[in-house]
Design goal:
By secondary structure, the protein is of the alpha/beta class. It has two domains: about 1-120, Rossmann fold; about 140-240, OB fold (Dihydrolipoamide Acetyltransferase, E2P) (Beta Barrel), CATH 2.40.50.1020. It has helices at about 10-20, 35-45, 60-70, 85-90, 105-120, 180-185, 230-240, and strands spanning about 1-5, 25-35, 50-55, 75-80, 95-100, 140-145, 145-150, 155-160, 165-170, 175, 190-195, 200, 205-210, 215-220, 225-230. The strands form four sheets. Strands 2-1-3-4-5 form a five-stranded parallel β-sheet, sandwiched between helices. Strands 10-9-8-12-11 form a five-stranded antiparallel β-sheet, with no helix packed on it. A hairpin with a 2-residue loop joins strand 8 (about 155-160) and strand 9 (about 165-170).
Amino acid sequence: MIRALIIDDERLARQEIKGLLKNFPEIEIVGESGVVDEALDMIDKLSPDLLFLDIQMPGKTGFELLEELDGRAPEVIFVTAYDEFAMKAFEVNALDYLMKPVEEDRLANALEKIKKRLNSRKEPTEVASDGKLEINDQVFLKDGEKCWFVELEKVRLFESEGNYVRVYFDDQRPLILKSLNALTDRLSEKYFFRASRKHILNLRWINKVETWFNGGLLVILKDGTKIEVSRRQSVKLKEMMAL
């Protein structure tokens, strides 16, 4: 069952989507909202798998809603009457983009995509008891006008740059307004390790660990990136990896 939340300021638009979804029993509508702030609370409480999200809404846009998510991001199908937003929607790696009025065959295609995407995940999504983000969680990142949905499994490194953090995944390196300390509090220690004041690395991306100066360690990631681990944190990493 795919848990869906409908977010659109037009009541008739929400009714239209709910009516169409009656033909898709695999979709469970867990809630609906026409207000961004209320929708954010619902996302936090209900943890939906999928958002049917309007773009242009009073006060805040759908993109601004995604930017305010503090944690794991659901899959997204944009539903809107404004086709000039289409290119931007695909830039953020949304699942799909549906024009109003929504056609049932286009909706069916979009739902097929989400089923394939969810089924393609290698492991069942884990939800940490402490609320921290796990390796299979998807997060929303924004750097200027560019946005991405990224599974944390793909993020190999977080690097502090002042009040910002550079995020390394695939061939991308967006800079996000976040502190490394805030990320440390949100990320599961089972998968992400604070190597120093400057770096958090994904333990699954470690290729080699070498001894370094003054009792420290040098971590070499699978992409060849070399990260110096502070002496204090080297002791912890040795214990974790039984070095």
